[in-house]
Design a protein that fits this description.
- By secondary structure, the protein is an all-beta fold.
- Helices cover 3% and strands 38% of the residues.
- A five-stranded mixed sheet has the order 2-9-8-4-6, with no helix packed on it. Strands 1-3-7-5 form a four-stranded antiparallel sheet, with no helix packed on it.
C-alpha cells in the first residue's frame, strides 16, 4: 500500500525527463482515399435463440482526399451466417469527408458464443480490406425480472378471532 509520503513525493528524476512526443496521424495523401470504419468491434451480448437483436450501426467513412470506391461489403467469419447487414451492400463511392451507415443484426442459432466480422474492401491503397469484429451470445430463453419494493411500516395490525361455535 502507498503511504501518504509515496503519493505526494516527486517522481524519480534519475531517468529520462523528456516528455514523449504525442503520436500524430499522418497527413492524408492528396491523391488517395483513406477508409475509416467505426466501431472496430460490436458485442451484441445475450440474445434469445432465433430472435433478432437490436440493430447496431456501422459507419464507413472516407477521410482521404480522393474518392473511395467500396467494392465489397459483406459478413464473414466462423459464425457469419448468424449476422446480417441491412442496407445497400453493393458497390458504392464515397467522396472525401462522406460517410455511409449500415446496420448489423445478430440472430443466434445456438446457446453459445458466436463470432463473425464485417469485411469492407475498397480502393484505399494502405488498407484495401478492413473489418469490424462481431460477437454475440445465444441465450436459452428470455429473462424477465420484476422487482417489488415494499415500504417499511412502523405500525402493525393484529386481528383476533374468537371462535364461539361448538365445532
Amino acid at each position: 500500500a502507498c503511504s501518504d509520503y509515496d503519493l505526494k513525493r516527486d517522481a524519480d528524476v534519475s531517468g529520462d525527463t523528456a516528455e514523449p512526443e504525442p503520436e500524430q496521424e499522418p497527413e492524408p495523401d492528396p491523391e488517395h482515399p483513406d477508409i475509416r470504419v467505426s466501431p472496430e468491434s460490436v458485442d451484441f451480448s445475450y440474445v434469445p435463440l432465433n430472435c433478432d437483436s437490436s440493430p447496431e450501426t456501422i459507419t464507413v467513412s472516407n477521410v482521404g482526399a480522393a474518392d473511395l470506391v467500396v467494392s465489397e461489403l459483406g459478413v464473414g467469419g466462423e459464425d457469419g451466417i448468424r449476422f446480417r447487414l441491412e442496407g445497400d451492400d453493393g458497390e458504392f463511392t464515397l467522396a472525401p469527408d462522406e460517410s455511409r451507415e449500415f446496420e448489423v443484426i445478430f440472430t443466434p442459432g445456438e446457446a453459445d458464443a458466436q463470432v463473425g466480422d464485417v469485411v469492407v474492401r475498397s480502393n484505399d491503397p494502405d488498407s484495401p480490406e478492413v473489418g469490424v469484429d462481431l460477437e454475440g451470445l445465444g441465450a436459452e430463453g428470455g429473462t424477465y425480472e420484476e422487482i417489488f419494493i415494499q415500504e417499511a411500516f412502523e405500525a402493525v395490525d393484529i386481528l383476533w378471532v374468537v371462535d364461539s361455535s361448538s365445532s
